[in-house]
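Q: Joint fold for the lines below.
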Amino acid sequence: LAKTTQPISMDSYEGQEVNITCSHNNIATNDYITWYQQFPSQGPRFIIQGYKTKVTNEVASLFIPADRKSSTLSLPRVSLSDTAVYYCLVVGDSSYKLIFGSGTRLLVRP
Amino acid sequence: NAGVTQTPKFRILKIGQSMTLQCTQDMNHNYMYWYRQDPGMGLKLIYYSVGAGITDKGEVPNGYNVSRSTTEDFPLRLELAAPSQTSVYFCASSYLIATGDSTDTQYFGPGTRLTVL
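A: Joint structure:
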């Protein structure tokens, strides 16, 4: 399973766009990039997954360059409720094992 | 549809005591998992199960045992509790779909906060 590297923490203000970059230099051909969100005192929650280029859903966008060695989670117009820890994971095709790093602790200020 | 439920929410144990953390899912998922999360850290996989009667070790299995007699339930047993087992324990489940278009999503329970004194 490929190791990921992401910033330990980030600060933002309400209404701003937040971009969290994750590095995964050893990603394999069959691996997907997956992001989970964890609020305090709750279990993680899946937010988005992608293989290449760009993926968008109602919560976030995920940008993946052609070499797939990094990815960027983009949260548009964050609110206070987006304060959470965001985990970047690399998951193999049909794999069920998740390896969580320490994540990025996002603090959104008023 | 309650998803993944865990009991108890909180528990304090004395060193050497034993307990079972309960986990139930009502989504008919084949796969179930137990993780622990220490303060400020990511989750670490303790044990997982790919179906009733089948379990396997994760990254940190020492001091724990599991069983999977039904699809719905996946209890985690702590024998001879130690202070190093103070942590938040999360149960998760997933239904592996090998579509080739995506990997599986895990659904997590609310966690059990365990303190061993």
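Q: Anything notable?
A: The CA atoms of residues 43 and 62 of chain A lie 22 Å apart. The mean pLDDT of chain A is 91.
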